Amino acid sequence: MTVLTREKAGIESDLFEQLRMAVRRFVRERLVPLERQVDEENAVPASVVTEMRDLGIAGLTIPTEYGGLGLSSFEEAQIVMELGWTSPAFRSVFGTNIGIGAQGIVIDGTEEQRRTYLPALASGKLISSFCLTEPEAGSDAGSLRTTARRDGAGYVINGTKRYITNAPNAGIFTVMARTRPESKGADGITAFLVDANLRGISIGSVDRKMGQRGALTADVIFDDVCVPATAIIGGPEFEGQGFKTAMKVLDRGRIHIAALCVGTARRLIAQSLSYSRERKQFGRQIGEFQLLQAMLADSQAECYAAETMVLDAAQHHARGENITLEASCCKMFCSEMVGRVADRAVQIHGGAGYMSEYGIERFYRDVRVFRLYEGTTQIQQLVIAREMRRRAEHN
Ligand code: COS
Questions:
Q1: CA–CA separation, 27 vs 86, rounded Å?
Q2: Which residue among the candidates 134, 361, 374, 387 is catalytic per the annotation?
Q3: Contact, 176 vs 242, CB < 8 A?
Q4: For ligand 1, what atom is nearest to the CA of residue 386?
Q5: 241: Cβ below 6 Å to ligand 1?
Q6: Which helix (H) or strand (E) holds 80?
Q7: Which domains does the chain have, with CATH numbers?
Q8: Partners of 154 in the beta sheet?
Q9: Labelling 54: which of 40, 181, 184, 239 has CA 20 to 30 A away?
Q10: Residue of the nearest CA to atom 4 in ligand 1?
């Protein structure tokens, strides 16, 4: 029995390694040359979307019984680090299917919901979006105002969701709405699966952003949208549980974003190192100067620390342990880390770092949002301290 398990693990790890190498090749050979085009056109070419779909990217984390690759969070983190090597817009195409748009169904969905949506999400034919943020509810997600009023056997949804990734292309939305108007906090919130074609749904114009061009975000407006009670993630008995579903989804999502930060930091370090070996000033490679070496060394050490913590947290998550604290540590440290690494990359490249031709300034803009979305650094600090106090109470 033990031998069989080991053999199985061996075969699986071989297959996983093949997948990781295939993603690495695809990213470096196919996607990297398109980075500038994606930034300029604010769109990922349709042919690339098809190739990503064929590679299985959309279904990385969806269980195999529903057509996905069923990667654990530990494996997911390693693949996402590979995707992080290039512009984040590419990962974003299926980022919501891998993460926050689909995980609610994987974690808390009914069997019927899983069978209905996960195969299409895994194949990439269906795109999902996660609708939590609102004009007046960002960090304070529990104060959201979108309502889902009981109406006969179903609910009527009204409200506006903001900065929703992939909204213009989504076929299905996970919508957090208040089903108990008397409750102002998290306990009155329910998560719904809402078909994007339903009457009453409209999408705002595509947001103009500082970076991550090609990753599309927009408002989603719900105007008397009728859904059945079976649209509640987990079924009608999960009424009022939506905030917890959202938080569980974000736990895994925060490790995912942290892994992405590590991938981008690796790329920026590699590019900085290479530039420092080519560029000559004062008759020597600039990499021979100790002040420049200090910047390279700081970036490398911080990236290594980040990579190690992400893999550790992901491993604990894969074992089914509570990693709320660790996920927030990863999200906070890695997003801040890649911000510093990007800043040093500009510095190492000097004037060239500021020019769009070299692509460094694009990454500098792209990584800024990592400290904001899926919970700001300040929210991660609150979560970490809250969990520390909670754990202390239980020990
Ligand atoms: N897993 C499971 N349940 C969780 C949880 C988690 N990670 N985090 C919180 N919960 C539960 C709590 O246990 C609590 O349940 P009980 O009332 O049964 O005890 C409930 O959810 C409410 O939690 P809490 O009281 O901590 O809610 P707050 O309103 O204080 O909000 C923060 C907590 C600030 C952490 C939350 O609003 C948040 O994460 N904000 C940032 C939102 C965000 O990331 N937005 C980005 C948009 S998505 S791109």
A1: 7
A2: 374
A3: yes
A4: 26
A5: no
A6: helix 73-83
A7: 6-123 (1.10.540.10), 128-240 (2.40.110.10), 244-393 (1.20.140.10)
A8: 151, 228
A9: 40
A10: 244
Distance in angstroms (rounded) separating the CA atoms of residues 170 and 164: 10
Q: Is the CB of 243 under 6 A from ligand 1?
A: yes
Q: Is the dihedral of CA 328, 330, 333, 339 positive or negative?
A: negative
Please name the helix (run of DSSP H) or strand (run of DSSP E) that holds residue 9, with its range, or none: helix 2-25
Q: 251 CA to middle of ligand 1, Å?
A: 10
Ligand 1 site-directed mutation target among 189, 244, 369, most atoms within 8 Å of CB: 244
DSSP state of 374: T
DSSP 203-253: E-PPPP-SS-TTS-EEEEEEEEEEEEGGGBTT-GGGTT-HHHHHHHHHHHH
The Cα diameter of the chain in Å comes to 80
Residue 151 amino acid letter: D
pLDDT in tens, the chain (395 residues): 233 333 334 447 889 999 999 999 999 999 999 999 999 999 999 999 999 999 999 999 999 999 999 999 999 999 999 999 999 999 999 999 999 999 999 999 999 999 999 999 999 999 999 999 999 999 999 999 999 999 999 999 999 999 999 999 999 999 999 999 999 899 999 999 999 999 999 999 999 999 999 999 999 999 999 999 999 999 999 999 999 999 999 999 999 999 999 999 999 999 999 999 999 999 999 999 999 999 999 999 999 999 999 999 999 999 999 999 999 999 999 999 999 999 999 999 999 999 999 999 999 999 999 999 999 999 999 999 999 999 999 98
Q: Is 24 in the pocket of ligand 1 (CB under 6 A)?
A: no
* SS3 state at 207: coil
Is 278 a catalytic site residue? no
* Residue 139 CB–ligand 1 contact under 6 Å: yes
The whole model's pTM is what? 0.95
Nearest-CA neighbor of 92 among 118, 119, 130? 130
230 CA → ligand 1 middle, Å: 24
Q: Which residue, 27, 24, 40, is CA-closest to 357?
A: 40
